């Protein structure tokens, strides 16, 4: 073989090699998920509460974020007309297992705390308040440890006015407000647009004006299917006749979105309660 053809051949091989490397690196870059490195923390009161936002938990996990799910209570009082469970420790064990199943399907890292369902409300001030204080301290430890980029929790309506829901949302808010976090960290509340609620009482109890629910996170059919499968894990809480299709239909009745209200801090100091708009 002539010297020139050896050189040409070598150049061709090197170019081909470089081109393959370029393709490999390029495809790796393209394959990188959009939220790789981001940390999302969702905090809810009971096993199955996460189903309010589960399609977007599945979405963010799919898009590369590390999703942590904190469930505060043990669900010991989760009896209902569909099953004949008895409130107490056996039901706690069942619901822990169900919650684990649901979190795994959503690809969320589960932290299931051991607070009593209803946060010892029946025990009055001396039973409830120390329990609620301990909850704030444990949530504070979790937020400090996980250092999330975004947090989602219950808003003041608590979805159903359930006291545990509202107190978990308020406790997460207290943790958030208690210090100046050393990185950008956003807090979001799950919300239902008043326009999507038909009954007037429901609008008052849990509706939110559209102008507050400005974070409208879309999700795919695939995310919704995952959410439906995950919901089925909470077998002790659901009507055995409810199918995954029923869940998906109900969930996406007003479009494939989860509405959130972002907590906004004032941008400027002020010396009056008036004229701050
Ligand atoms: Zn609940």
Automatic annotation (TrEMBL):
InterPro entries: GlcNAc_PI_deacetylase-related, LmbE-like_dom_sf. This is PIG-L deacetylase family protein. It holds the Pfam family PIG-L. SUPFAM superfamilies: LmbE-like (SSF102588). It comes from the Bacteria.
């Amino acid at each position: 073989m002539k010297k020139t053809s050896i050189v040409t051949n070598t150049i061709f091989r090197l170019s081909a090699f470089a081109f393959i490397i370029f393709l490999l690196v390029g495809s790796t870059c393209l394959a990188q998920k959009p939220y790789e490195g981001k940390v999302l923390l969702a905090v809810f009161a009971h096993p199955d509460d996460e189903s309010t936002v589960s399609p977007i938990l599945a979405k963010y996990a799919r898009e590369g974020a590390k999703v942590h799910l904190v469930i505060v209570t043990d669900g010991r009082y989760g009896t209902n007309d569909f099953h004949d469970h008895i409130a107490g420790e056996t039901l706690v064990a069942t619901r822990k297992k169900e919650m684990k199943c649901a979190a795994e399907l959503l690809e969320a890292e589960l932290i299931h705390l051991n607070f009593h369902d209803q946060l010892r409300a029946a025990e009055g001030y001396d039973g409830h308040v120390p329990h609620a204080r301990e909850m704030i301290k444990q949530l504070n430890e979790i937020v400090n440890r996980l250092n999330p980029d975004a947090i989602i929790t219950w808003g003041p309506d608590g979805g159903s006015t359930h006291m545990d829901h509202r107190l978990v949302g308020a406790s997460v808010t207290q943790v958030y407000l208690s210090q100046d976090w050393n990185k950008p960290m956003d807090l979001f509340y799950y919300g239902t647009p008043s326009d999507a609620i038909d009954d007037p009482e429901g609008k008052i109890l849990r509706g939110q004006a559209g102008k507050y629910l400005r974070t409208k996170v879309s999700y795919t059919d695939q995310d919704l299917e995952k959410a439906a499968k995950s919901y089925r894990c909470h077998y002790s809480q659901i009507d055995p006749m409810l199918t995954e299709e029923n869940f998906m239909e109900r969930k996406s009745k007003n479009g494939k979105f989860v509405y959130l209200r972002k907590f906004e801090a004032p941008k400027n100091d002020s010396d009056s309660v008036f004229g701050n708009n």
